[in-house]
Design goal:
Radius of gyration: 19 Å
Shape: globular
CATH superfamily: Aldolase class I
Oligomer: single chain
Number of strands: 14
CATH architecture: Alpha-Beta Barrel
CATH class: Alpha Beta
Strand order of the largest sheet: 3-4-5-10-11-12-13-14
Structural class: alpha/beta
Number of helices: 12
Bound molecules: flavin mononucleotide
Length: 374
Amino acid sequence: MAKLFQPTQAGDIALKNHIVMAPLTRNRSPGAIPNDMNVEYYRQRATAGLIITEATAITHQGQGYANVPGLYSKEALDGWKRVTDAVHAEGGKIVVQMWHVGRISHTALQPNGGKPVSSTNRIAKAKTYLVNADGTGGFTDTSEPRALETSEIPGIVEDYRKAARAAIDAGFDGVEIHGANGYLLDQFMRDGVNDRTDEYGGPIENRARLTFEVVEAVTREIGARRTAIRISPVTPSGESYDSNPQAIFTHVVEGLARYDLAYIHVVEGQTGGERDYRQGDNPSFDYKALRAAYEKAGGKAAWMVNNGYNRDMALEAVETGAADLVAFGKPFIANPDLVERLEKNLPLNTPDQSTFYGGTAKGYIDYPLLEKVA
Ligand SMILES: Cc1cc2nc3c(=O)[nH]c(=O)nc-3n(C[C@H](O)[C@H](O)[C@H](O)COP(=O)(O)O)c2cc1C
């Protein structure tokens, strides 16, 4: 049997195969509370070696879109407990992606209608999605943020720590810190967004500081072997730009090597787009060199890759050792039994983009399983 389908380990988490369900925001948790439909969705996909939940707000301030779940109210945590119980009952493993959107938000989603917070006062040319009380909704521009005061940053780190504890108490096998796709931690890491003059801005050591402080706090709270992080070195989402992504992300992975993490999750190329995407005039990002830098610095975590992988690419990546784990996004939306289909080399259902974000059971929990396809 190909290595892709054999059991493996990510830190303390034992996986039944090397196939991971990537984090996928589906905007189907009104009130930020996971509900019955969400329980069923994750239960259906429990044959993945590991499920990473959709991005989940660590605090009300970390919310940036309508109907995404949170990790901060009792009701939400009770909802997540039902999800983790359902996945475990099927023999699956599940970690939660811990999210603070930073400036990719709207005053309508913020506590007391306040400004979203970021590394900067500058607004992102980006959209978010709002739903009105009558259920109608639509895309709207993000609001102007305010730069966090230096004195507020320990509070943000504390929010991540608390959320990690709450996640473990809700039955998750671990947490994935969302350091990708132009959200808060990425807004600090990149020099095209971060215009601070305190110890969190300027040189790469300063821009990576918040990410390291979060990793430190979370690993102390729940253990490094249940902690993971996702990065997307060249993804331009939310107007995130860096003049030298190779330099900042090499520094980041070298710093992460100090911790005995469960896995490092790298989106190769533009998330959901070109795999060889370049930021500005930068040369192609060298992901091999990134991993080599991590290992040279003593890093031993499983290396998870994502973005546009198909069966052949995944088989080869794991067989050759180029990756330890492969995360699939869109294929898991449309194929709850993706692992079996890949193993038997059978055709895949096509995802319906019109039902990705928000809506009902349609395009969420009604994709057919193999026996119904035949
Ligand atoms: C509907 C949808 C929602 C997504 N939500 C998230 C998310 O919550 N967190 C995240 O890090 N990436 C998110 N992504 C990106 C995916 O995790 C993944 O990186 C992307 O789909 C590329 O992988 P694929 O080619 O296997 O689909 C989302 C992508 C899609 C299509």
